[in-house]
Write a structure and sequence with these properties.
Structural class: mainly alpha
Shape: elongated
Distance between the termini: 29 Å
Largest sheet: none
Number of strands: 0
Helix content: over 70%
Radius of gyration: 14 Å
Strand content: under 5%
Number of helices: 2
């Protein structure tokens, strides 16, 4: 299961990178902002996956690794 979760984390990070690239190519301000929000959501999902991996390995993690100081 850990390998599967890691693959999922990498998949979400890849989707975030694709969304950022698409957002950069857009000219419409609202569409660009929407794509940036989607990219951030993908990063959030990847971070949550990272947290699950850390907890399964017995490490302590913050509630949200993306926004943790």
């Amino acid at each position: 299961m850990t390998t599967e979760l890691m693959r999922d984390r990498l998949r979400w990070l890849a989707r975030a990178a694709e969304a950022y690239a698409l957002a950069e190519a857009l000219h419409d301000r609202e569409a660009k902002q929407a794509m940036f929000k989607i990219a951030l959501m993908y990063e959030h999902i990847a971070a949550r996956t990272e947290a699950v991996l850390a907890m399964s390995a017995g490490r302590a993690v913050d509630d949200d690794p993306v926004t943790a100081p």
